[in-house]
Amino acid sequence: MLMRHVVPADVPVLQSLMRNAPQKSGGVEFSLLNEPDFFGRAKAYERSRVLVAEQDGELAGSAAVAVRDQCVNGERSSVAYEFQYFTAPAHRRKGVANRLRDAVDSTLIQQGVDFSTAMIADQNEASMRLFEQHGFVLHRRLELTLLLIQGDETNTVDPSVRRATPADAQAIANLLNETWREHEMRTPASARSVTEAMSRVPTLGFDRTFVQETDGQVTATASIWDWSAVQPMFIHEVADDVRKVLPGLRPNEPARNWALSMIGYRNPQALNHLLHAIAAEAARVGIDHVGIVSEPDAPVVSTDPGIKTAKLGVNLFVKTYNGKRLNSRAPVFVDAVDL
Predict the structure, then answer these.
(1) Deepest in the core among 144, 254, 267, 286, taking most CB within 10 A?
(2) pLDDT in tens, 132-141
(3) pTM of the model
(4) CA dihedral 162, 283, 294, 119 (to 10 degrees)
């Protein structure tokens, strides 16, 4: 079996495979689609690779990995994030995913990374077993909180919330560093890194970033990561009990979801104002859910924004290299872009 980088000629086949490779989690059967840009998901990272497995001239599966410099135990470490694993239906149970993981592992060892990570939804037993077989251990159970947008949030927008401009880059960077300074696996922010992310990451941008301002100071910020435009989730089936909780999931339709990235906040009140404004914008353009991934007890999800929510479990798996270890007591920084 040949392992190589994806080339543009592979894209139509891989997009078709993703459409026909549904997965199940939490009572929902769905397919993740890298459409319209197959590489859009990987563009969220400065250093990423997308691999494909080829068997006798036929594409059998794909996986992606990105490498970032992040703070771990107070030191800068090289941390990989693995995502977008899928196998063609005709090649399942033939070891394709294991071969892809081996190829990724070889790449990471050559690059001298210190850690590799993966985020896996609750009930995705097959993926958890795959990564456990390759030396990953469950480091932390996280939560994906979904704000349920019901169309009645438009009357609650606070005038202190506005869209960001490039002039806010330094204030946004300062707030991100302040919010996450005690967390493992954070990336220190600067005005330059914020500006670069706004231009590099699909669907992000200053015009899609909201800030809450009090007495001339930015006290909360968040950017919109549009799942619907980068990696839409096409819904095949929804269990009755799930449909009651998440009525926005409709069989035979793509889910209309956003997530929040680059979240920073000085206090819960500022965060509430911000979430109200984002919910109002989501309602205005027909978005059903806005996702936030975090530690279960993080202020970002323990506040009461006056919006109904639903929670789903997400598991952070970690593999260590070079003898390094994560601080198991410290909270971890996570971003919805990584889901």
Answers:
(1) 144
(2) 999 999 999 9
(3) 0.93
(4) -120
